[in-house]
Design brief:
The complex is a heterodimer of chains A (about 900) and B (about 450). Chain A is of the alpha/beta class and about 900 residues long. Helices cover about 25% and strands about 20% of the residues of chain A. In chain A, strand 29, helix 20 and strand 30 form a beta-alpha-beta unit. Chain B folds into two domains: about 90 residues, Urease, subunit C, domain 1; about 300 residues, TIM Barrel, CATH 3.20.20.140. Chain B is built from 13 helices and 16 strands. The chains are: A alpha/beta (about 900), B alpha/beta (about 450).
Chain lengths: ~900, ~450
């Protein structure tokens, strides 16, 4: 592992002077150690007659670089090699700044491959190790902020040498285990048997993972939702810690000393010095989540991964965020089933990921490359060439390998370009780095010269196709069913991107729409025959007969059709990255708001069932779940554009789901315990509230109380800012929750499922809770055995405000039918039935001032039906959200055809014709 | 399609058979004349007329039929008379509470249990039967369940009324349930639910092994049957004995397959085995509708109200599939494959109507089509003389939610439409206002 310095054809004319020059010119290194095995080196070099790509300035066509004791002493066309320098003839060669790999784990072990999905299980998989089981943020799961990649570098990591042979002189190294594995450092890949000499700068960033690939802990957080909440809490804790220490240090006398916390100390430093958080983000919605989460954390993110950020360049640019782009371009997996095709979203990612660098450059987003999932660093340049083939300029490409990462990590004053005074990290290549046949011949690191050894033949064969697509044979299912004589057209992933069809967004966005002549079921004031609805600027402007169409109106003929308010689903689990944080019995710190997934095609499918608004709820794994998100189905909008600012809510759950056996055991296991968990939670929240009230009453003097996201959400329930929506089945548990709420002085907003609600309808009505139930599901578990399809009607009859919900991606698509079942079973009239899935749900979520019925002034959330919507034969043909046409049964066919054509083209390009 | 022998192989004491033999219970002896309703026989045009039930059978149907002396007159004026609905594959009587294992008798251990019969475990007092009945479900094929590639056991054709399963039974061994091994791919391994684990080649190998195992069982049954017929002295083997009926085409197979590729493979396998079968599930069958029609394959569809098979499939894929199959000439039937949801059978059919299945075809798909596919149509499926009297009377279109079933006859017996749900409804509807003693 000793750096090699061998005579080569490059070696100099003045070799005889070398030993002397070294002896006289090299000052002792600051942290010099005895180097018993290392021969004395040349420290003064001159590379002459070379093409020099400085990156920071102009390309010098025929110039000299002088390297003196580790730094670049001079660069230029007219520079003479100093006396005594080891002169390298650079004619025909090109000199670059040393390549900079913007994110690695070099020296700290390899990161395990990503598991499918998030791989969370809260006890699934490996048997939990009690010592690493986390019961909440206080256990600081997967957190080692105090570790820095500059420490404990594994000198025998053989990746150092292969990276250097590929032209990388510098890497950002990180630890990778857990969720917040520690501080990143910039390392030079020179004398890696003397690790301390490698460190250029530390810390330069704090790495964040959203998945604990190494499984350093079990338990909380057990979902993406929990991870976001955890990250926020950790940084809130650090902020509080920082304030507490600052106050103490300003005047320690008479104060209780804050407890020292090794996990929070480094974050204090991060706040102070402003280094960024490395935050993973592939898609546009990931970027949105990174922005929102780091805003709360109080740090600036640098996103990494970034394959799908071709679609998020505007977000990054607006927020001033840099991106680290993984050069391991996604590609269809090998060993593929010929009949199983990737989804459109996956194909688009395969197709567009290499366009990301060009898109970021175009938008002015600073970005750098990293080798990421590549098997060999020698594949990096081929991968960069793919980005160049997709429109990235060669200059920008080289910059993203050199100066840009140096800038992003705050070391551009010493690295990243061929400039006088900078660290002498250089690459001498046989030609332009981005030429396919260019060879990296010599590498300088900290002024030390290394001959680059060609990577092994196997790795070289990957050249020209970084994704390993030459391996596409088995990927296309060789040996699978294929017609005789079928010709294999072969994939061509480097071809220009396939144009994307418009598969999202509204079909029409008209300022004025007149829906004429329909039978209008208002849900608030009866059914109106042959009635017109004028929609202007997203609102219902006028309802009447014979309305004049304004000149700019789009007229929709609804004659013979039915118009209803857009359906509202009071209980949905779609459009979220995760649903349950069931690792703890109170998970009020998490919220669906953090994990909205706007890519979920389920939203469009619900639109096709006349649905315009859904309430996404946390699951029922624990007595106190997490926050909900009420969104409108504005298909194609970002998470922020889906939210409608509804009153905050939270999911509670009672009964079987909360108390079933878990590994490890989790309290509660009985309905007694469920009640106890909730009561204890509110008692804690009361204390917490008092603490804050005292602080407020005292004029906010001194250090604010520690913000606790878990108790904060419970406190919001107590002071009415957050509504409880509680999963419940049995009459007895329903009653107990109502009484407990009364004990703490709040009202349960809705009981969800509430299948035995009909048994205690009077009590529910007296308490003032709403009820949201299923139409006719029953007997799937013991607590559902007394469910009856008359539940909605019976509760309505007894004065409860009732809605019917889906809790299902399929059921939501025909909630109109589910409402009609309450006419069959229990005899509700048409408007009562329709209200179950429109106005009543709107009231339950506090959005009835803007949606839920067809009334002038409300949002134009409308569905048009062919056939009566309370019939089995009614079919939604158009759905409007805020007056925009998001579903149209005819235009849907065109969109579907376009999607299929795009998919065919993507499949041909990335998998070949003969799959 | 072949006709099966109408006698059951076992001496199963059928309600109907018993009635015919004169050993009838009181209810079975009842004679009814349903008068004045619009009769939809599903065997010809509708008419306003009379249906006479006697001894468990339909004995007369027509516009001008006179009720026999002593018949109980059922006034159906202004109402509609239909065949009772046939939930072609369900778990009725086999599953009480989904989440409670010990209430499930649908799934036995082992993959090769051709000798097991669902009727052995059907619980006549299950709460699910009266609930299904209240919505017009008169008969079902109660079917055992198993894994991919399994010869699961025999589905039993039962009427949804009887004090004992003997009184309910029409045919305990009405069909053999075989789950054709899946190669995956229907949903795609990129889909959320994905295909079986393992790489493609591994899956291919597993698939081929699974098919080879099925072939071995079928070959063994043929050898066994031949040996028995040749009078060989050998020990009776219940499994081979049961499968022999299948290889002899005496017992049809409910052959489960979902994705397009699996359906095609299953059909080709069944043709190779020369068995009488219908495909169940059939989610992706619409993609090969013409081929299925050419091959005269009937399908018993998985629930229409289902999500599309992949993220890029059209939103209405499952809604439109029955219509596409029907248009191509494939015989389509519906089933719920469920117990608690059996009452929603008509809605699975109705859901397909606005998306292209003709209304009459939808009605046939919940009454007679599965009976025809399985060779049961000599006894059930329509209102015709000589058939078992499964008849429902409604106040409207049975495919519509708001329609109420007012009367139901199963195996010739007028049955109660009361059930757990109705009684709980009535009980709590009459609950007095809260009676809390104030402090």
């Amino acid at each position: 592992m000793i750096p090699r310095l061998r005579p080569t054809q490059l070696l100099p004319r003045a070799a005889l002077t070398v030993a002397l020059a070294v002896a006289t010119l090299a000052p002792p290194s600051l942290n010099a150690q005895p180097r018993p095995t290392r021969p004395e080196d040349v420290r003064l070099f001159a590379i002459t007659d070379a093409r020099i790509v400085t990156v920071s300035g102009m390309v010098i066509e025929n110039g000299t670089v002088v390297v003196d004791d580790g730094v670049i002493r001079a660069v230029g066309a007219g520079v003479e090699p100093p006396a005594g320098a080891w002169v390298i003839d650079g004619s025909g060669k090109t000199v670059y700044p040393g390549l900079f790999d913007a994110l690695t784990t070099l020296g700290h072990g390899s990161e395990p491959a990503a598991r499918g999905g998030f791989g969370f299980g809260g006890g699934g998989g490996n048997p939990p190790d009690p010592s690493s089981h986390s019961w909440g943020p206080e256990d600081r799961p997967g957190t080692s902020t105090w570790l820095t990649a500059a420490d404990d570098i594994e000198a025998d990591d053989d990746r150092f040498e292969s990276w250097r042979n590929a032209g990388f002189t510098t890497v950002v190294s990180t630890r990778h285990e857990g969720l917040v594995p520690g501080q990143a450092a910039v390392l030079n890949l020179g004398s890696f048997n003397r690790p301390r000499e490698m460190v250029v700068a530390t810390p330069v960033a704090m790495r964040v993972n959203l998945q604990d690939r190494s499984r350093t802990f079990t338990g909380y957080p057990g979902s993406p939702m929990g991870v976001f909440a955890y990250l926020k809490q950790l940084y809130y804790d650090a902020k509080h810690y920082d304030d507490a220490w600052a106050a103490y240090e300003a005047d320690p006398r008479g104060k209780r000393r804050p407890e020292w916390d090794m996990a929070l100390e480094p974050v204090r430093l991060q706040f102070d010095e402003g280094w960024p958080a490395l935050f993973p983000a592939t898609s546009r919605s990931d970027v949105g989540r990174a922005i929102e989460t780091t805003r709360e954390m109080g740090v600036q993110p640098v996103v990494y991964g970034a394959h799908g950020t071709y679609a998020a360049a505007d977000l990054l640019e607006d927020a001033g965020i840099s991106a680290l782009v993984d050069l391991d371009w996604p590609a269809p997996p090998t060993d593929g089933d010929p009949d199983a095709l990737p989804s459109l979203d996956q194909l688009r990612l395969f197709d567009r990921a290499p366009t990301t660098p060009a898109a970021l450059a175009e938008a002015g987003v600073p970005f750098a490359f990293y080798t990421g999932g590549l098997d060999q660093p020698s594949q990096a340049l081929a991968a960069v060439r793919r980005a160049v083939a997709q429109g990235l300029s060669e200059d920008d490409a080289v910059r993203a390998l050199t100066l840009s990462p140096a800038e992003i990590f705050g070391v551009a004053d010493r690295l990243g370009s061929v400039e006088e005074g900078k660290i002498a990290n250089l690459v001498v290549a046989s030609g332009s780095l981005l030429d396919e046949d260019a060879r990296i011949e010599t590498v300088f690191v900290d002024g030390e010269m290394f001959e680059a050894e060609a990577a092994d033949a196997e790795a070289d064969s990957e050249d020209g196709d970084a994704g390993g697509d030459e391996d596409a044979g088995p990927r296309r299912g060789r040996g699978a069913r294929g017609g005789p004589g079928a010709r294999d057209a072969g994939p061509d992933p480097a071809a220009p991107p396939v144009p994307m069809s418009a598969n999202k967004g509204p079909y029409r966005d008209d300022p004025v729409t007149l829906i004429q002549g329909g039978t209008v079921l208002t849900a608030s004031h009866g059914t109106m025959e042959n009635t017109d609805i004028l929609v202007r600027d997203g609102k219902i402007a006028e309802i009447g007969t014979g309305l004049e169409a304004p000149g700019n109106a789009t007229v929709v003929d609804a004659t013979g059709k039915f118009v209803t308010p857009g359906i509202i689903d009071a209980h949905s689990h779609m459009a979220a990255l995760s649903i349950n944080e069931g690792t703890v019995n109170i998970s009020s710190m998490v919220t669906i708001e953090d994990v909205i997934r706007p890519e979920d095609i389920g939203m469009y499918r619900a639109l096709a069932g006349g649905v315009t608004t859904i309430n996404i709820l946390h699951g029922s794994a624990n007595p106190v779940g997490g926050g909900n998100a009420v969104i409108k189905l504005r298909w194609g909008a970002d998470a922020a554009g889906l939210r409608i600012g509804a009153h905050k809510g939270i999911k509670f759950a009672l009964g079987e789901n909360t108390k079933r056996d878990r590994n490890p055991d989790r309290y509660p296991a009985t309905r007694m315990g469920v009640q106890d968990v909730i009561r204890q939670g509110f008692m804690d929240a009361r204390d917490y509230m008092e603490e804050w009230e005292a602080y407020e009453a005292g004029g906010r003097q001194g250090v604010a109380p520690r913000r606790d996201l878990k108790l904060e959400a419970l406190m919001e329930i107590l002071n009415g800012e957050r509504w409880v929506h509680s999963h419940s089945y049995r009459a007895d548990e329903i009653l107990q929750l109502l009484r407990l709420a009364e004990e703490f002085g709040f009202r349960v907003r809705t009981l969800q499922h509430v299948l035995e609600g009909y048994k205690v309808a009077d009590e529910i009505a007296a308490h003032g809770a709403g009820a949201s139930t299923f139409s006719d599901w029953w007997a799937y578990k013991v607590e559902a055995y007394d469910a009856i399809p008359h539940n909605a009607a019976l509760m309505t009859e007894r004065g409860v405000l009732v809605s019917i919900n889906s809790d299902s991606g399929e059921e939501v698509r025909h909630l109109n039918q589910e409402a009609a079942k309450a006419m069959k079973w229990g005899g509700l009239d048409e408007e009562q039935a329709l209200r179950l899935v429109t106005l009543n749900s709107a009231i339950q979520f506090g959005i009835d001032d803007r949606t839920g019925s067809i009334d002038e002034g409300k949002d134009a959330d409308l569905a048009i039906w062919e056939g009566h919507p309370l019939s089995m034969f009614g079919k939604a043909v158009q759905t409007y959200v805020d007056g925009k046409l998001y579903f149209d049964i005819d235009m849907d066919r065109e969109r579907q055809a376009a999607v299929e054509a795009e998919k065919d083209a993507l499949v041909a390009k990335h998998l070949g014709d003969n799959r | 399609m072949i006709r099966r022998r109408s006698t059951t192989a076992l001496g199963f004491a059928l309600g109907v058979a018993a009635a015919a033999a004169g050993g009838a219970t009181q209810a079975e002896a009842q004679t009814y004349a349903i008068q004045g309703g619009t009769v939809h026989t599903l065997a010809g045009d509708s008419f306003v007329g009379t249906v006479v039930i006697q001894g468990g059978r339909i004995v007369a149907v027509g516009p001008d039929v006179e009720p026999p002396a002593g018949a109980e007159i059922v006034d159906a004026a202004g109402k509609h008379v239909y065949p009772g609905m046939f939930d072609a594959v369900s778990g009725l009587g086999l599953t009480e509470i989904g989440a409670v294992d010990v209430t499930n008798d649908a799934r036995e251990q082992g993959d090769f249990n051709p000798h097991l019969q669902a009727a052995t475990a059907v619980h006549p007092a299950t709460e699910h039967i009266p609930v299904a009945r209240a919505n017009g479900i008169a008969i079902t094929m109660a079917a055992p369940q198993g894994g991919s590639g399994a010869i699961v056991g025999q589905a039993s054709l039962i009427g949804l009324d009887g004090w004992t399963v003997e009184e309910m039974g029409i045919d305990p061994g009405a069909a053999m349930v075989v789950n054709y091994p899946s190669l995956g791919g229907g949903r795609g391994r990129f889909g959320r639910r994905g295909a079986p684990p393992g790489g493609w080649r591994q899956r291919q190998e597993q698939y081929e092994e699974a098919v080879a195992r099925l072939d071995e069982w079928f070959d063994a049954a043929r050898r066994y049957d031949q040996a028995m017929k040749n009078g060989a002295e050998m020990r009776r083997d219940l499994k081979n004995e049961a499968l022999a009926k299948v290889v002899n085409r005496e017992m049809p197979v409910l052959l489960s397959a979902n994705g397009e590729r699996d359906v095609r493979n299953a059909v080709e396998w069944a043709q190779r085995q020369n068995i009488h079968f219908a495909i169940t599930g059939a989610q992706g069958a619409w993609k090969i509708a013409d081929w299925l029609a050419e091959n005269d394959v009937g399908v018993i569809m998985s629930p229409t109200q289902s999500m599309p098979s992949g993220p890029d499939e059209s939103y209405d894929e499952a809604y439109a599939a029955p219509g596409k199959l029907h248009a191509a000439g494939v015989k389509v039937a519906f089933a719920t494959f469920n117990s608690s949801a059996s009452r929603t059978l008509p809605y699975e059919a109705a859901q397909a109507v606005p998306y292209g299945l003709p209304h009459d075809a939808a009605l046939e798909a919940v009454t007679k089509n599965a009976a025809e596919m399985l060779g049961l149509d000599d006894r059930i499926g329509t209102i015709e003389e000589g058939k078992i009297a499964n008849i429902m009377i409604t106040d409207g279109d049975p495919l519509e939610i708001q329609t109420q079933v007012t009367d139901l006859f199963i195996l010739g017996r007028g049955v109660s439409l009361d059930n757990k749900h109705k009684s709980l409804y009535e009980k709590y509807r009459s609950r007095p206002g809260r009676r809390v003693v104030s402090e």
